[in-house]
Each structure stands twice: as C-alpha cells, then as structure tokens.
Amino acid sequence: MSAPVITDNKKKIKRGFLTVVTGRTFLIAVLLLAQLGLLFWGFEMLGDYIHLGSALAAAVMLIYIINSRSDPTVKLTWCFVVALVPVVGIPLYIFIKLDVGHRTVQKSVSRCIAETMPYFPIHPKSEAEDLTRALKNTDPDAASIAVYLRDRAAFPPYVNTDVEYFPVGEKKFEAMVRELEAAEKFIFMEYFIVSPGRMWDTILEILTRKAKSGVEVRFMYDGTCAFGDLPYSYPKELEARGIKCKMFAPVRPFVSTHYNNRDHRKIMVVDGRVAFTGGVNLADEYINEKLRFGHWKDTAIMVRGEAVRSFTLMFLQMWQSSESAGGCFFEQYLPAPEDIRVEASGVVIPYGDSPMDNERVGEEVYLHLINTARDYVHIMTPYLILDGETVMALTSAAKRGVDVRIILPHIPDKKYAFWLAKSHYKELLEAGVKLYEYTPGFIHAKVFLQDDKMGVVGTINLDYRSLYHHFECAALLCGVPALSDIKADFADTLAKSHRVTREDAAHEKLRVKFFGSLLKIVAPLM
What we know:
Number of strands: 17
Largest sheet: 8 strands, mixed
Number of domains: 3
Distance between the termini: 38 Å
Oligomer: single chain
Structural class: alpha/beta
Shape: globular
CATH architecture of the largest domain: 2-Layer Sandwich
CATH superfamily of the largest domain: Endonuclease Chain A
Radius of gyration: 24 Å
Strand order of the largest sheet: 9-16-15-14-10-11-12-17
Helix content: 40-55%
C-alpha cells in the first residue's frame, strides 16, 4: 500500500524542483546571491564607487521604464524592484525585455496567424459589414466591441450559431463524450491541464478508438503537465495509439523567457461543426470526481454552427506554430457554411489572446463590458489580481450605479492568490462593488455577464498571467438565448455564496493583510 504514496511524493518533489528551476524564482534567487556577493566585494574593494555606479544605473533604468509602453501598475512594480535591488532588478528587466527565445516563438505564431487570417471570414466582406451595421442598430455597445475584435484582433462576428451553457464541469464532460462518439472526420483538442483519472481515461479511450477507425485526432497540451501529471514522453505514447500529439513549450531550465507564456486555452473541435471552450480542463477535480478545495465550480460552453470556424482556426494556429510554413491545408477542416448553419438568434464572436503582440484582447473585452454596463455586470473568477485600469473600471461602474457583483472562491487553490485578491477588497467594497465567496468550495469559472445583452465564457482569469502572459481564448456572446442560462446560474451560485462586508475586510487576519499587501507590490511579476 506504500508504493503509490512514495510515487506521489516523488512526483511532488519533481514538480516542485522543476517549478523553481524553470521559472523566474530561480533566476531571482541567483541574482539576489549575486547582489549580496557584489555588495560584499564592493565594500571591500571599491567603497563608495559601487554605490555611485549602482545609483546611476538604477536612475537610467528608472527613466527608461517610466517612458516605456506598459501598464502603470507594471511600471510601478519594476521601478520598485530596480530601486530596491538594482543588481537584481536591472538584469532581470533586461533579460525579460530581450525576450531570449521569445522572438523565435513570436515569429512562428505571427506567421501562423497570417496564414490563417484569410480563412476566418465565413461570408463575403460586404455581408460581414452588413452584420456589423445591423448589430449597431440593435446594440451599439456590442457593435463597437465587435468592430474592435474584427479589425484589431482579426476575429469576426458570426450568426447562425447555437450556444449551450454548462454550469458545471460534469455537464460539459457528458456533452464532450457524446460529441466525441459522433466524430466522423477529425477531432482537435487543446488543453492546459491533463491528468489521468476517470475524465481523461474515458476521453483517451474514445480518441484511441476513433483514431483506429480513421478519424484524424490531434491533441495538444501545455508543457507544465510534465511537472508531475504526465511523463515527458507522453506524446510518443499517444502517437503509438494513432493520435497526433504535441506538448506546447516543453519546459527546460535556463532557456528562455517565453516559457512563462503558457498555453492556458481549452478548445475541443469535432468535425468543424461543434466546439467547446471554458474553464474545464481534463482532470477529475473539474468534474468533482476528485475532491480538491471543496466543490469545484466551473463553467463551459458548446457552440454549434458558423462560429466553430474560429475555434478550428485558433487550434490550427497553435498547432502550426511548431511546423514549417505552408504545412497545413486549412480548407479541409472548414465545412461550407450551408453544411453547419443552424437556426439561432444573436451573434457569437470567438476570440483568442496572445502574449506575442501588443494587443491585450482579453482585458480589452472585459473592460468594455464593465465600462459600457448600464444596469449590471456580474463576474465569476477564481483570481482577482488587478491592474490599476481594471480597479478603476470596476469602482467607477459601481459609483455610477451599476450593480457590480463578483463571485470568488471561499476555498482557494493558491494561498498567495487568495491573499492578493483580498488586498483589493477594501477599495472595491468602499466603491460599492459587491463581493461574494462561494462557500461550498472553489470557483474556477471565468464568466462575465452584462445587462442581459452580452456575456463572455472562456479561459481568461482576472489576473496578470491570463491578461498579459498566457495564450487564452473565449467567446463573446451578444443577444444569444444562453445568456439567460448564465444569468440563472449566477443567481444560483450567488445563493450559495457568502457576501463579503466591509466589516469582514476590516477584521481580516493580520497575516493575510500583510502578505497580500506585500505580494501586491510584485503581482505583475508573478
């Protein structure tokens, strides 16, 4: 009976070791030791010259940072680090700005986006413009964000698309199994976390069977899974089953800053006719088959119809980023509009967000929903690690009378994230934002709902990692019937949540306040 425990302990030790040596933590520790070494050497050999040189270098770097194109909160954090420990802060900032290895990935991703861009529009340009004009007549706010997504991010709006909302991972899992069993041509899957258990074992058995029957199966997962959930050689194991498999950005120590840019997306496409996205990964806690942090509350959507096209192309973009140019014939995975059209009202805009460009698409959509809300904006998110712009948007909305409600976990998966979230409580509550904690357990859903008119379901958290560093995806829903299902689920979740009062925030444990305030200083670097 002891062998499984020993194996689990070895996995935990391996995961912990790799997490340290492949991230910024190890680099910062090395630079801190360098700082101490140089200080001792400086005191012995150079005296005051070391202080003068350090001060001049820090001053030059501070001027550069202040004048750089970046979020003010990020600038403030870097200024603090550079001013406090220049021997650590300056090399770290230069290392990240140089993007060692990042530029190669950026080039390949940009190439793939350029290759797929002509395929996104499902209708002629004139029809797409007519759709935007029609949307402007019914909902100008939806039309303006649709124009942004179309023109700045290259994600067009679609009609003739049905949306089904899943309030828990169990419901999504049932639908996934049903649709996978019905696959006839191809299956594309891209996930952040994959862990053996009932959920993944069930799906893997279907994928293996489908691959043997002639269905093309492509599976892609993030390299962090090799920390303990899956063996490093797992792609070869799936290839032996007939499944084409890739591990995105396998993590290797000391190589590149781009390993900080994880593939956090969750996409499944079957035959180009149906697609899934949302917060649900391929592990048993997401379907409450395994107990972690109480009840695991997550959400997802299934889209059927024209909008599946964008999810198909988003998957192919990421898949092709490690392939040679021109290696994919996209047309064979894009059914004709008449073959997938469904009778449905509303507009659906699937979109992705990449850390490889200067367009923060995920944050832009969220801020638009907050800033244009008239009656309410309701949010479910596992993390609340906010930049100054988002704090301003939330507090301003509440001050102008918008009913701003945010549901967060009561049982956190990461204590540091919980402490950081609580560091925002006082300011948000004083402005009139209503905060709730889901008492049965952990909220992993990423949901926005605004005024019964627009909503977002996807993979994008309200934290720096999702908004700045990760590859993400979501769908903007405008006037679709599923918005009423999202509203009902929010009300149901709210009924199971504890409303946080200003008194609660005032009487928070001193330890939580202290570490939250401390971590807030370096939150953009986490």
